[in-house]
């Protein structure tokens, strides 16, 4: 469920007409619903009510906006971060350092040091070499860094190849068959408190089967590690639950997921850690765009909008689907391709799709844009960086300004020897 609904013929975000935001802020623009974010955060937590002791860390990469992070911090969520910048954002938003988990395959020495400086709760180690580096840094400071070892279980998540992370050919984690030996060596290092294992097999999962297979393998690994004399107190089960992008999508609910987790992990006696991202933020946001013009095509018309692939990258890089709707639908439909103004054939959001009929200057929205939307935006073709708005009932605020090309140019310099 989300809070983007038709009222008196106009799509609203909670109690604000999207047309009002478009007129006052301009387009394209991302719009988030506080009520939807809070509801999804509660539903995910409630789904795990029978799973024992849990730790929830929102995957900041899904939506790093400070206002979004503050809402989730107020809901008791920590942060799963994959860079020093995300770590600083999480802290700035009010998330507690001890509730931050630092993931990511390429953490630099500087980032590891930053995590120690800030006293974060856990590092998820992606390799033995990373563990050795972290141990050396921590030991030189007279500290022990709490960490888990990320394992690659060689499980196909059944999702898009570019967001699958748990197959043996993927770059993430250490192979499960060598994990016990690596765990044994790292656990001997003075600067590490190696307290468990971590796993994450991919994003936008539509079935629980790959997750259950993965978790069963992790349970066997936990038993093997304990059998070898190691203490295992934490297991990070990652994230990856999908959301419905298309009407026919039917991903597992948090309640169904939680029931599976409780059943598979009931004898583990650990703190279970989770990294939800898309399932919290995906349906909490839309992107509003305005029609520039309708261009006749051979098979169907092109609806050229002022949003482009630099504003919403997912269709261009994943062939991803986002429902497209008119802000003030007439009830009539048309078959059209929705395209942006960038000089790339990949700048297309929908190809020959049946959509609400639109005319020049009409407003439309791309749904399910709250995750991996604004966070992936860029300024290709010297376009402005898209702004973000948060709605709370009958009020809204701009929570990320539109950054104009002139502002970006001001950070560039022509050396004197070219003048």
From TrEMBL:
Pyridoxal 5'-phosphate binds at residues 240, 275-278, 372. Signal peptide: none annotated. It is an enzyme of class 4 (lyase). The modification N6-(pyridoxal phosphate)lysine is found at residue 61. Its EC number is 4.1.1.20. Its cofactor is pyridoxal 5'-phosphate. Keywords: Amino-acid biosynthesis, Decarboxylase, Lyase, Lysine biosynthesis, Pyridoxal phosphate. Homodimer. This is Diaminopimelate decarboxylase. It comes from Parasphingorhabdus flavimaris. The gene is lysA.
């Amino acid at each position: 469920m989300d809070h983007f609904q038709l009222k008196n013929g106009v799509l609203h975000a909670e109690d604000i007409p999207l047309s009002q935001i478009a007129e006052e802020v301009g387009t394209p623009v991302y719009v988030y619903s506080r009520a939807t974010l809070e509801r999804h955060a509660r539903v995910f937590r409630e789904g795990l009510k029978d799973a024992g002791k849990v730790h929830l860390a929102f995957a900041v990469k899904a939506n790093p906006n400070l206002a979004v992070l503050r809402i989730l911090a107020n809901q008791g969520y920590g942060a799963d971060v994959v860079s020093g910048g995300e770590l600083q954002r999480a802290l700035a938003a009010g998330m507690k350092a001890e509730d931050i988990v630092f993931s990511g395959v390429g953490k630099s020495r500087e980032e590891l040091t930053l995590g120690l400086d800030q006293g974060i709760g856990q590092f998820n180690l992606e390799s033995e070499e990373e563990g050795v580096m972290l141990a050396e840094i921590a030991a030189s400071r007279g500290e022990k860094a709490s960490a888990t070892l990320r394992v690659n279980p060689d499980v196909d998540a059944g999702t898009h190849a570019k967001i699958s992370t748990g197959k043996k050919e993927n770059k993430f984690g250490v192979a499960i068959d060598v994990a016990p030996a690596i765990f044994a060596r790292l656990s001997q290092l003075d600067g590490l408190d190696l307290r468990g294992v971590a796993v994450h097999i991919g994003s936008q999962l539509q079935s629980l089967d790959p997750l259950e297979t993965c978790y069963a393998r992790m349970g066997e690994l936990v038993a093997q590690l304990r059998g070898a004399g190691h203490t295992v107190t934490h297991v990070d089960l990652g994230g990856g639950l999908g959301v419905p992008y298309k009407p026919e999508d039917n991903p597992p609910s948090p309640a169904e997921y939680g029931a599976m987790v409780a059943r598979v992990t009931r004898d583990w006696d650990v703190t279970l850690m989770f990294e939800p991202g898309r399932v919290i933020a995906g349906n909490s946001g839309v992107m509003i765009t305005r029609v520039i013009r309708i261009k006749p095509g051979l098979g169907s018309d092109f609806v050229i909008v002022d949003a482009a692939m630099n504003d919403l990258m997912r269709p261009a890089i994943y062939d991803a689907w986002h429902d497209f709707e008119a802000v003030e639908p007439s009830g009539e439909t048309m078959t059209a391709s929705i395209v942006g103004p960038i000089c790339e054939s990949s700048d297309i959001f929908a190809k020959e799709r049946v959509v609400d009929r639109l005319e020049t200057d009409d407003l439309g929205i791309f749904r399910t844009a709250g995750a991996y939307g604004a966070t992936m935006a860029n300024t290709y073709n010297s376009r402005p960086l898209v702004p973000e708005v948060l709605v709370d009932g009958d009020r809204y605020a701009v929570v990320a300004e539109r950054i104009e090309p002139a502002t970006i140019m001001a950070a560039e310099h022509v050396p004197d020897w070219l003048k």
